[in-house]
Fold this sequence. Notes:
two-stranded parallel sheet; single chain
Amino acid sequence: MNTADLSGPLLASVSRSFYLTIRILPRDLRAPIGLAYLLARASDTIADTADAPADIRLRYLADFVAMIRTRSTAGISDLQREIRPSAAGEVCLIAELHRCLDWLATLPASDQREIAAVMEKIIRGQTLDLQRFGKPGGIIALQSAAELDEYTYLVAGCVGEFWTRICLQHLPRYSTMDATELERLGANYGKGLQLVNFLRDAPADLRDGRCYLPADELLAAGIAPDSLLREPSAARPVFDRWNAQARGYLNDGFRYIESLRPARLRAGCFLPWRLGVETLHLIETRPPLANSERIKVPRSTVYRAIWLAALIAFSNAALRRCTHQLPVTGFR
């Protein structure tokens, strides 16, 4: 089947930044990683389409993971009829979902297994999110650090593991590091990027009734989750703790990148790392809970990250030098 329009224009329509990363990758990796991203964006669209009631979205998440598991498109027309996103790229993605599933069936069996395994975990995380936060009402918070860690692993940490295993399958000399340690660092790297997203989007999540800062830590700091929007400064100790955790995970991401051999993979892994660090800097200088303006890395920073990715692709010395110019410290 011709998948050029799926891995090209469709992918670009749902994520310009990840599309750039995909184009950097060696050709053999573009199909499994690009398709996995499209499937994950599709499940995210199912979970986030607010026009459909939560129970309908939960049903179609379960149906979608079954389609991926069986490589079947049975029931896809019902999903496409009831899940109607508003963003143009997501509309196209849902409309082309049957072709994405057909594409999955053409990949090597090992790639199919890895994609199915990571999608099981991602959809498990999305299902938990809907079950916890799907009912309207006041602000609902995760109960503990363990719940937050589980969720960041399911929706992002497992992606770092998936990326690592796929790359090791296709590129035996992918890294200088032991595979087990590399998977651990990859999982932490993914969790770090997700934590950055949580911290950046905290005000919007609170307005939607979601609080990813653990309730037990907030209560220990003397604030209830439903008071956060009125008294954001009271949550600063908890916010700072998870900011430090994100920094530590991104440091593991740096170690991950440092171990890689292929230049294109180093560049591809560096891009989200650099943008994550830059976002962390903005979070630290303009704490989201105390500011109404949504934090967003400027386009000039994205262009600079692309330029730096080319610079560090062939040299750990260049990678280390670029960290000395970072707006935040603490990265090796």
